[in-house]
Specification:
The chain crosses the membrane at residues 6-22, 29-48, 68-88, 95-114, 120-137, 149-168, 188-208, 220-239, 245-263, 275-295, 301-320, 341-369, 389-410, 431-453, 473-490, 566-585. One of its GO terms (molecular function) is oxidoreductase activity. It holds the Pfam family Proton_antipo_M. The chain is mainly alpha-helical. The chain has three domains: 1-219, no CATH class; 242-499, no CATH class; 501-545. Helices cover 72% and strands 2% of the residues. The chain is built from 23 helices and two strands. It has helices at residues 9-18, 24-36, 38-43, 67-88, 94-112, 116-135, 140-170, 187-199, 207-211, 217-238, 244-262, 267-288, 291-322, 333-336, 338-352, 358-372, 386-411, 424-442, 444-448, 470-495, 504-545, 547-555, 559-585; strands spanning 50-55, 58-64. A hairpin with a 2-residue loop joins strand 1 (50-55) and strand 2 (58-64). The longest helix is centred in the last third of the chain and has 42 residues, at 504-545. The radius of gyration is 31 Å and the shape is globular. It starts with 8 loop residues before the first helix and ends with a helix. The relative contact order is 0.08.
């Protein structure tokens, strides 16, 4: 073990600062090294290590090592290195990769912060760096990035309010200052909604499918990883003992995201809805609040980053080679791009939770926790609890969505032209992730060793988790069979659906025209104030130069008559004042 000399975000942010001034090759190599070294550095740092500093005049813990932050640091560092490699071979500019590294660095800062002040500081920086990464691509990404910034600015503000309220309640920013997470009655609500933006609560989720399909395909790899998973980590810090409402929200997210994904034809938009769906499983695990639930949530964070990055990589290679993003314009690419098709298949089976793939392991832990550690709920079906049913329905929707994706992109029909497969660097990146998806699916003990709680120890969890039981394997196969049969039944009507509106169809124009109205209103108000000030200044000048002419202009009477009227008025006022004084003192 080593002592933490510097927090792991430091080398990543330093690399981001110098990368634009290097050549593409040297810059990307530096980026791979800077993110890659985070993995052994975090792995070799003993738990309990921390670095205390002064931040904005308050005592803060800039670097804190515990099992949760260690797991997040390991997967963030690894996926950052693989994503930089992919960026290099997908013609990303040095500036784009530098912005991506700044996003990685601020995310590391957030998950290694030992208190709320440090977390919210990096949380806001993470929103800024990810917005810049989106904007860098230009075009439609600019407006999407603007809406992204507005919503994350709102979420960050609510979380900041929760942090301040928490500090007033307990007098400290430390996570450990209040054993139940956010203290008081108001702070938890503000935190739930503020963090809910990042994790994609239903109604706060539309920035995901709105933003992630817009930027460069390599940028989407970074975006699909850090914001939502940091949000799950923040949700755990706010609710370490769980929360029933948050657990049910997670279950609903699993179903909602998978359902909307099924209607999408844009590949990256489909994948973005499935981020919401899969994060729903993690949120449900956090909401359950037991050791089994939290271990499942963190296991799914780890696994999801592997297979979701792989899915975005395969979609990115298709777009990179064909220039097409819609499934309706593709088909038959499996014969043209066998490596990409094979990588997609591994990732699809992983995200759907098929046996022998990593998603099967982590989803199983959460579903087990929803059965053994959570109330049956209002709509339990036989031995299946309400939350459990929602998570299983989300699994069926996931199978349906990725059968559709794979069918229309790789296996249906023939592609019109000859298409090259992934290049060398893209292949290395995809194969690396695919191998790990299979490895952690088969050797589940390797995943269990990374978790904050030992799910195989009866003294730690309420129900010892065993991945490969007959019931569990049958459940995974049955969900796949239902998905396959379901797709056959709905394929024809599904192909006729071109667009299903989501909440972004309301808030996108609201954001555009609302901000435009604010800008125009402020501009017009300024113009009115400016004209009024100019007129008043001119009038004062005229009065000083020739007051009688001004009076004649406004009253229409000559100066002699005005003098008489003014004199008469002054005399009358004087008489009234004198009369009042006489009456008062008589």
């Amino acid at each position: 073990m080593v002592d933490p000399v510097v927090p792991p975000f430091v080398p990543v942010l330093l690399a981001a600062a110098v990368l634009p001034f290097l050549g593409r090759r040297a810059g990307h190599v530096l980026g791979i090294i800077a993110t890659g070294v985070v993995v052994p550095y975090v792995w070799l740092t003993a738990g309990g290590q921390h670095l205390q500093v002064l931040l904005f005049g308050f005592e803060a813990v800039l670097y804190n090592v515990d099992p949760f932050s260690t797991l997040m640091g390991l997967i963030f560092g690894f996926i950052g290195a693989v994503a930089v490699l992919y960026s290099w071979y997908t013609e990303a500019s040095s500036l784009q990769t530098a912005l991506a590294l700044s996003y990685v660095g601020t995310s590391l800062g957030a998950v290694f912060g030992g208190d709320w002040l440090t977390l919210i500081f990096f949380w806001e920086l993470m929103a800024v760096t990810s917005t810049l990464l989106v904007w860098h691509y230009g075009g439609r990404a600019v407006r999407a990035g603007f809406r992204y910034a507005l919503l994350h600015g709102l979420g960050g503000t609510l979380l900041l309010g929760a942090v301040v309220w928490h500090y007033v309640e307990v007098g400290s920013f430390l996570f450990s200052a209040a054993p139940g997470g956010m203290a008081g009655g108001v702070a938890p609500v503000l935190a739930a909604v503020g963090i809910g933006v990042n994790v994609g609560f239903i109604g706060l989720h539309a920035w995901l499918p709105d933003t992630y399909p817009r930027p460069h395909v390599a940028a989407s790899i970074f975006l699909c990883v850090f914001t939502t998973k940091t949000g799950v980590y923040g949700m755990y810090r706010a609710f370490p003992d769980g929360n029933v409402a948050i657990a049910y929200m997670g279950g609903l997210m699993a179903v909602f995201g998978a359902t909307y994904a099924l209607f999408q034809n844009d590949m990256r938009r489909l994948l973005s809805y499935h981020i919401q769906s899969q994060v729903g499983y993690m949120v449900a695990g956090v909401g359950i609040g037991t050791a089994l639930g939290q271990a499942g949530a963190m296991a799914h964070v780890f696994n999801h980053i592997l297979y979701k990055a792989l899915l975005f990589m395969t979609a990115g290679v298709v777009i990179y080679r064909t220039g097409k993003e819609s499934l309706k314009k593709l088909g038959g690419l499996g014969r043209e791009m066998p490596v990409t098709a094979a990588a997609f298949t591994v990732a699809a089976l992983s995200i759907a939770g098929f046996p022998l793939f990593n998603g099967f392991v982590s989803k199983g832990i959460i579903i087990s926790a929803s059965h053994y550690d959570f109330p049956a709920g209002p709509v339990a079906l036989g031995d299946f609890h309400t939350l459990e049913v929602l998570l299983l329905l989300g699994g069926v929707g996931t199978f349906l969505s990725f059968i559709k994706f794979g069918y229309y992109a790789f296996f249906h029909g023939e592609y019109d032209d000859s298409v090259a497969d992934a290049n060398r660097g893209q292949t290395v990146a995809m194969v690396s992730l695919a191998v790990l998806c299979i490895f952690y699916g088969i050797f589940d003990g390797a995943l269990f060793a990374l978790l904050p709680f030992d799910v195989t120890d009866a003294s730690v969890v309420s129900n010892v988790y065993v991945t490969y039981t007959v019931d569990h394997v049958v459940e995974g196969v049955v969900l796949a069979a239902i998905g396959l049969v379901g797709f056959v039944l709905i394929k024809k009507p599904l192909s006729s659906i071109s667009h299903v509106p989501d909440i972004d169809s309301l808030y996108n124009p609201a954001a555009l025209y609302g901000t435009r109205a604010i800008v125009v209103g402020i501009t017009e108000l300024y113009a009115v104030v400016d004209r009024t000030a100019a007129t008043a200044t001119g009038l004062v000048g005229d009065i000083l130069r020739d007051p009688e002419a001004v009076l004649e202009r406004f009253t229409g009477r000559d100066s002699i008559q005005l003098r008489v009227d003014i004199g008469t008025s002054v005399a009358l006022v004087t008489l009234v004042i004198v009369g009042v004084l006489v009456l008062m003192f008589a």
